[in-house]
Specification:
Structural class: alpha/beta
Number of helices: 12
Order of helices and strands: EHEHHHHEHEEHEHEEHHHH
Distance between the termini: 13 Å
Radius of gyration: 20 Å
Strand content: 5-15%
Oligomer: single chain
Shape: globular
Helix content: 40-55%
Amino acid sequence: DVIHCFGTEYPHTLAVCRVFPHKEKILVGIQGICTLCAEAYFADMPESEIHKTTFRDLVKKDTLRSQQEKFARRGVMEREAIELAGNITGRTTWDRVVTTAWNPKAHYYTMNETLRASFYEGQWQPEHCEPYSIFVSQADYPLKGLHYLLQDRVHFLGKLTGEEMKERFLKSHLFLCCSSLENSPNSLGEAMLLGVPCISTEVGGIPSLFDGGRDGLWCRGHQLSKVAENDKYASDASESKNSTRNYKTTKTEELENIVNSMANSIIEMWSSPEKMLEYSKNAREHARKTHDKEQNFAKLQEIYANIAGRKE
């Protein structure tokens, strides 16, 4: 009755969209937008670092350039799948703008994410955190922005289970989403659910999830600059005030601008404990609405029933 493909980044979604004859019964769920992730992949890293080859890269035959190329290839498959599908589900204004530009005939359904069960319990308390600790949830590729924060006080925690992540959230004085591009990062949602004070780059679909100035603080993020000739949606798709460059800066200057913005936002957050508690409360209330399990389940059932009942 309905085929629901979660994510567009791998070949099996495209395979289903190609072979299943009833396109109006296909529902494609958007995770991120690989085409634009490929553009933002290096996230203002210096050219000297982008072109370096490590021992790990040699062993795995997997350099930063080849990783970016994988995203670009996935983007080609992703676009075709979206153009074929009769129905799309997403969560942000950003993913809606992009997918509607690619396939204006598809039905777009808004449906928020339900997060891991353990994050609906527990609450951040300032007296129980490690003072001036900043938690970043991912660091395994440049898009996540770890290089904006590197100094001599980084402790790599390795892969954590859900419970270990929750424990680390609650111990941290601040959660920072420093990605160069995201649609709706679950890590930010989990931090908000727990009431951890949050700072985020204002990129991609994040403004649909996080209200900077009320739930926490914004900081400057990577600037999407290249707009393909037939993809003018890219400059309109980001909800960020900083989504397009109207001035010329070098990569080094841009990196410094982002680093300084992050530092200023962190200092601002820690300089006002009362305001930090207000952000914590607001973020928790916001996330409990966005990630309401029962509402999200009911919405999914509604979408399925709508698609299943539709005639060609």
